[in-house]
Amino acid sequence: MEVDTPLSSTDIGPSPALTVVVPMYNEEDVLPLFVDRMRPVLDGLQADYEVVAVDDGSKDATPVLLQRFLRDWPQLRVVRLRANAGHQAAISAGLLAARGEWIVTIDADLQDPPETIADMYHAALEQDVDVVYGVRTDRSTDSAFKRHTAGAFYRLMRRLSKLDISHDAGDFRLMSRATVDAVNALPENNRVLRLVVPTLGFPSTTVGYRRDERAAGESKYPLSKMIRLSVDSVTGFSLAPLRLASWFSVIGFAVAILLMIYVVISKINGGVASGWASTVVIVAAFSALQLLCLGILGEYVGRTYNAMQQRPAYYVAYDSLRATELQPTDEDRHVVER
Ligand code: UDP
Ligand code: MG
Asked: What are the residues whose beta carbons fall under 8 Å from the beta carbon of 52, sequence distance 6 or more?
């Protein structure tokens, strides 16, 4: 399975000025629109570039379309993951494959306008910073549910992680080679990039943009993936929940002592044992608390376990840049030629 590691930036060919990393999962509807809009922007940059399209194990015609676009867009490169690994893992795969001096990550659905890449690139060169965050100045096109959950997520993470993460920063950002090398060198596998990059603390600036509506197709972020991202974020960047468990146990202990005193006093006064209802309530409440603490501990133990196993967050099946050495598996070929 040596084919699974994509070559990193320095291994193959000259490094372009700019790499655009685009994660794609079942994006057949939006892909032609994306190419139509992205290509003129990049061609107009007057810098050499590459586009790394990371096909995150799509089950629709995305790989077929990508093969078609490969033929007449020489700057396009396709990295296909063997199975759906998720948005963050797909971006991580793209960052490892990227060869550019500057690297942009952008969604495929045109919610992040490609034209902003030019602004980011110029801002980086002029202001001599390592990171340019795309900041959403207007999210009115996202659903109310998405806006509220995202707002709560960023507020919570700001408090828990004490990081200065911009309220509306998503995964649309430009990074220098040094930044991407630093991210690639991190041992953790389930990286939440929108938190990892600010943690580095490299010099940065922001560029505002209007978040558009998804150009075609449907959101690939069901609630289950949003929850996964939140759990990864909280456990990856904060020990506060662990401390919460300790505080709960302190409170539980205090309550237990008070109860003991109460029992002793009522015994001395010859009082009758109080009803079973309160006992049941107390037992139930404390069992719940214990389970909660166990659950929190389990999250961290699980993470430690995962980190120890060093299990990759994704597997690469195919890289168009190495197409001669790296034949797609039969299964992938089947998809491509379908
Ligand atoms: N995506 C991915 N793997 C996934 C889910 C999403 O690569 O498992 C990509 C998707 O193709 C898109 C980007 O991540 O380019 C953001 O996803 P989406 O637009 O569906 O999320 P939303 O904007 O609804 O939060
Ligand atoms: Mg989207």
From this structure: 19, 20, 21, 22, 77, 79, 94, 97, 98
Report the DSSP beta bridge partners of residue 76. 51
Cβ-contact 205, 119 below 8 angstroms? no
Closest CA relative to residue 319, chosen from 3, 2, 103, 16: 3
Distance 109 CA to ligand 1 centre (A): 8
Nearest residue to 134 via CA among 173, 104, 102, 164:
173
Judge whether 167 and 90 are in contact, CB under 8 Å. no
- Tell me the β-bridge partners of 113: none
Whether the CB-CB separation of 234 and 303 falls below 8 Å is answered with no
Going from the Cα of 105 to the center of ligand 2, the distance in angstroms, rounded, reads: 13
For helices 87-97 and 193-200, the axis angle rounded to 10 degrees is 50
- Highest mean pLDDT out of 33-42, 140-149, 242-251: 33-42
Over residues 34-73, the pLDDT tens digits come to 999 999 999 999 899 999 999 999 999 999 999 999 999 9
C-alpha pair distances (Å), 70 with each of 11, 50, 75, 170, 323:
21, 12, 8, 28, 12
Q: For 89-125, what is each residue's pLDDT tens digit?
A: 999 999 999 999 999 999 999 999 999 999 999 999 9
Contact (Cβ atoms closer than 8 angstroms) between residue 168 and residue 194: no
More confident residue, 183 or 263: 183
d(CA 174, CA 83): 27
In the reported structure, the alpha carbon of residue 160 is separated from the centroid of ligand 1 by a whole-number distance in angstroms of: 25
89 lines ligand 1 (CB under 6 A): no
Q: Is the separation of the CB atoms in 137 and 230 below 8 Å? A: no
Structure tokens at 32: 């032609």
In this structure, the residue with its CA closest to atom 24 of ligand 1 is 219
Are 190 and 119 in contact by the 8 Å Cβ rule? The answer is no
pTM of the predicted model over 0.85: no
Which atom of ligand 1 lies nearest, measured to the CA of 25? 11
